[in-house]
Specification:
This protein is of the alpha+beta class. Helix content is about 25%, strand content about 40%. It has a 12-stranded antiparallel β-sheet with strand order 1-8-9-10-11-12-2-3-4-5-6-7.
Length: about 270
């Protein structure tokens, strides 16, 4: 049976960041509108290279995951994409969606090179992969404080989120993971994988998140080019730790797209 890839989107990923005095205060409503408009404008991009990072600064469970990739627009809301993800600078996973199918290649140090394997015939939307750059569900009531800084035509919006936002996003994560677990069970996924997901679910449910700040960068052309989120996670047991999540567009609307996506033989 063809297994679905495990794709769990964690939305809050953030840490304590004190806002400095530089920059101008602006109305929360205009901030939400500006970020929302920029996210919508990203749908106009024909192609781009991107980078992402997710890290946990935890003594008990340190974690550092970074990726680089690219996408090419085929039609409205339809993209082909490639992503190479590195875990703690050792193992790497390459994932690509081409022709509506998703492929994966895993590389482990000391082991023979693997080949592309089809892991799903349904595909996974780019808007899910880079949700923070393509979708925006900010609500004015969730923002405790906002600042905007204009530097060389780029605008940087720094938001301090309130407790209502944290609880809403936490609930969304719990729901997403629960759904993922049910799908894994229906697909007869290995019990160990399901147990790992159930452990993750329990950890999220038992952890409080504080000091959430989010920074968005909008360039002179109006595209949302960078997202950075930090927070402090406070589990019921153990030491608190910092969570960092970021994603950015490094280049876009390139005239030559030949090397953006891998060539995968059927």
């Amino acid at each position: 049976m063809m297994k679905k890839p495990i794709v769990t989107t964690i939305f809050f990923l953030s840490s304590i960041l004190l806002l400095s005095g530089c920059g101008d205060s602006t109305s929360t409503m205009s901030v939400v509108e500006s970020i929302g408009n920029a996210a919508q404008k990203n749908a106009e991009l024909e192609n781009a290279r991107f980078e992402t990072r997710y890290s946990l600064d935890s003594e008990a469970k340190p974690f550092d995951q970074s990726s680089e990739g690219a996408f090419v627009k085929k039609a409205e809301y339809d993209y082909e994409w490639y992503q190479k993800t590195s875990f703690d600078e050792t193992n790497t996973t390459e994932t690509s969606q081409i022709g509506g199918k998703q492929y994966q290649k895993i590389s482990v140090p000391g082991q023979a090179e693997t080949h592309w394997v089809e892991v799903s015939s349904t595909g996974f939307a780019l808007q899910e992969l880079l949700r923070s750059l393509f979708e925006n569900d900010l609500v004015e009531a969730d923002i405790a404080e906002s600042q905007v800084e204009d530097t060389g035509g780029r605008k940087e919006y720094t938001l301090t989120m309130n407790d209502a936002y944290v609880e809403r996003i936490k609930a969304k994560n719990v729901e997403a993971i629960q759904q993922n677990i049910e799908e894994l069970k229906q697909d007869d996924e290995e019990e160990l994988v399901i147990e790992e997901m159930e452990t993750l679910l329990q950890e999220i449910e038992e952890t409080n998140y504080q000091g959430v700040t989010i920074t968005y960068e909008i360039n002179g052309e109006g595209f949302l080019t960078a997202f950075h989120s930090e927070s402090t996670a406070v589990p019921t047991t153990g030491e608190s730790y910092t969570m960092v999540s970021s994603s950015s567009l490094t280049e876009y609307n390139l005239s030559d797209t030949e090397d953006l996506l891998p060539q995968i033989a059927e």
